[in-house]
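ok trying again, last paste got cut off:
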Amino acid sequence: MNAENAENAESAENAESSENAENTENTEELSAERAYLRRGLRALRGMHEQARDTDIPGGDPVVDKVTIAYLRADKARRLATFTAHDGAVPLFFGRLDYRTGESSAVPAQPVYLGRRHVREDAGDDPLVVDWRAGVARPFYRAHRADPMDVRARRRFGFVDGELTAFEDEVLQPDGPDGPGAADGAGEGAGGSLLEREIQRPRSGPMRDIVATIQPEQDEIVRADLEVSICVQGAPGTGKTAVGLHRAAYLLYTYRERLRRSGVLVVGPNRAFLGYIAAVLPTLGEFTVEQRSVGDLLDGTPVRATDPDDVAALKGDARMAVVIHRALHGAIGDVTGPVTVAAREGRWTVGADDVADLLRATRSGAFGYGAGRAMFARRIAAAAARRAELAGTHISDGGIETLARGRAVREAVEAIWPKADGAKLVRRLLTDPPFLAAAADGVLTRAEQALLLDAHAASRARTTRWSLADAYCVDEARNLIERVPGYGHVIVDEAQDLSAMQCRAIGRRCADGSLTVLGDLAQGTTAWAAGSWATTLGHLGKPAAHLEVLERSHRVPAQVLEFANRLLPHIAASVPAATSVRSVAGALTVVRAASGTLAAEVAAYARRVLAHEGSTAVVVPDGQTAVIGAALRAAGLPFVELTGDTAPHRVSLVPASLAKGLEFDHVVLADPAAVIEGEPLRTHGLRRLYVALTRTVTSLVVVAVGDPPAELAEPGGGRPL
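nice, full thing came through this time. structure:
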């Protein structure tokens, strides 16, 4: 063997020895991590048993009832949290190794991050730290240019609850010859646990993204409670997940402040709420109230549907002016004095004095009902002052009694009558002179006629409220008696809210803060938002921070680039998003004859079902029956999505219900018919944009003939 061959053999032997040593080290470290996981699970079971056995005081008059109720609710919440983490999700997903010796504030031991704190005994350092804690922030924010005292960030891979791999990213090498940016320890060469977790198939509801939150998302999630935020997010940018994780973060960080006021999530429909329902419980939060736009309002049953032009008019902000005028127009003039009688005597408040009290009350910042009550108290107080001059003292309680007395009640009713929100709106929609007086200079005569004719035509015999009517009633009721609010409200798909819907949501967080989520390019209602500034104004939060998410982590680049061809036609001001993922075979466009469309869709759906994950067959609303029949004939199991049904492993989805949902695989039928199903082509193109961007792995577009011209390649090429 010559010298060169000997040197090469020695080099190869050394390299193999080094690789074997590294593999052995990685195997040993993976075993150590598994042992740590078993230790954490034992500690979690211990915490569960301790919480279960904790006694809540009861029957002791010394202990405040509110405190008892809080302790019981907190115990129930903790037990539910333990149950949710008992094998259902990995105990931890990441680890931070800090550089020690440079600062006493830096943790000396590795910090494991999970969905909740886990400790062995009270007072001990936690085995696992809640992802929302301040010490976890570098996991989402640190990078080579700003390592935030972190030496290395580790991500873990799990399969069915079993720890299978880990991957290290070194942010601060130990020395000039230290490791590189990523070590891939315990992981196959070139693998990325982060990318795998983002792309992991799903078979049902939405999952949390706690292990994959990106820096720009984390900035929004961890914003202070006092800050209201509007997120303009393109498809796949994670805006819905960001909003839900923000709710979880705020409840963790400001739990005492939000304990009484609460957090509300508003979604577009019940199907959407069913899709996201599991996210917050997985994150350990069970107290968040979730309502759809249709279910937000209590006490006004919706049993009618308005045509788009009528619904758009009723949802216009000008209706708030009309309702305010109609309500306060009922307040009349003072016609005489008010004489108040009690056992102690009789006292008269003159007409001029009553008129002064009326003007003072109307100029104050009172709602209609509160102003009415204040007017009565002021009349009673004026009578009490006259009693004082006559030598009779009336206590504060006595003044309240006088205010509730018959004389004051009758006088107030004659001047400032009691009002009912539903009756007020009903009268506006059925009484032409009443509507004309309230709408003069606000609504045109044609608009007034549209309201009156629509109500007369569709609800002649009984009052059957539409959704737009219900929001008008809510406006009136709030003017009479202010509706209770929440500490924080999160509203998704906000681009489709009318001005009156925005006002209803805004008054439910008038004293709190708001997170608004949406995409102007996906607005499909006749009243869809043209700008976030206008929407935020209607929500009562004009100073909210606007954050734009442009990086799609879910929708494949090929699909997003195809859908982005529609942006110049539907939302020219919205920046085109880019995807961080490219998936081989992500987009397929095929042409079918109209007579074979249903069979072609069923055939492609069958092929897609061979792959792992969830599948949606998205169809024009008018074609659900015929395509559903084709799927059944092909022997394909599916659930037809309705406004009350959450997605399943395989779903037949009308295009009007696709917004906000996400599937691994999508077969889209007849894009031209999706467009034609809307009254305006722009709205139809937006509906198509939504339908095209529901996938995270593959999209098959089955078109009748050529796809719509708006999908043509830039420069005038044919559609794919």
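cool. The first strand starts at residue 94 and ends at 98. The two ends are 61 Å apart (CA to CA).
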